[in-house]
Amino acid sequence: MARYTGPVCRLCRREDRKLYLKGERCYAPKCAMERRAFPPGQHGSARQWRRKESDYAMQLREKQRARRIYGVLERQFRRYFEEAERRPGLTGENLLSILESRLDNVVFRMGLADSRAQARQLVEHGHVCINNRKTNVPSALVEPGDVISLTEHATRLTYFKDRADYLQRHQTPDWLSLDPQKMAAKMLERPTRAQMQDVSLEEQLIVEFYSR
After folding, report:
1. Is the pLDDT of residue 161 over 50?
2. Segments of the chain assigned to CATH 1.10.1050.10
């Protein structure tokens, strides 16, 4: 499946906002936004974002931020938007709920990975199960009642053994119920916008972008 494989720090610099794509490094002084807080490219430091953005530019940037936070390319993101339109309720909130329900994001929310990119890698390597069935599809959508767990082989790996202590103090969102001992979690309900306080996106701008 296609995915972005370039340098991710330049994505944060392009969006003029920390997207927390590299886990703990984003909180360290080595973070690119701390050292070079201007857009990438030859003329990035000269622009410094001084010009006023149009409504279209603001909508585009918000859509790009959402794509980059969740690691989704354009075609798939558009399909998620179309699915959000078909569901009852507000399209923007439905869209964020779908993105949060992706398997790689759920693994990240469980605390098994420091970033969504790392969670995606864990899934692709076949370490994760949905309802005791191994899957290597990061974009698989988790439904309420589904149980996310590790394969028997994964539980014997040093990485996950070292992760056990962290899970004891990790706070999961309200829509997930985590069992730190079993390294498994159950989705209690579809994520709502009120349960996504840490998602700093203005979803209405994304709806306006696709509604032009």
Report:
1. yes
2. 9-98+199-210
Q: What is the CATH number of domain 9-98+199-210?
A: 1.10.1050.10
Joined together, the tokens standing for residue 102 give: 């992706």
Non-local (6+) Cβ contacts of 59 within 8 A are 205, 206, 208, 209
Over range 30-48, report the average pLDDT.
55
With 0-12 CB in 10 A as exposed, 13-18 as middle and 19+ as buried, what is 47? Answer: exposed
Q: Any bridge partners for residue 81, and if so which?
A: none
The model's confidence at residue 199, banded by pLDDT at 50, 70 and 90, is: confident
**pTM: predicted TM-score of the whole model, two decimal places:** 0.81
Those residues whose C-beta lies under 8 Å from the C-beta of residue 50, and which sit 6 or more positions away, are none
Helix axes 91-100, 74-86, angle to 10 degrees: 120
Residues of the chain with CATH 3.10.290.10: 103-187
Domain 103-187, CATH homologous superfamily name and number: RNA-binding S4 domain (3.10.290.10)
Instruction: Convert the pLDDT of each residue in 62-91 to its tens digit.
Output: 999 899 889 899 999 999 999 999 999 999
Strand partners of residue 147: 186
Closest CA to 56 of 212, 183, 185, 188: 212
**How many whole angstroms separate alpha carbon 72 and alpha carbon 161?**
30
Q: What is the pLDDT of residue 135?
A: 95
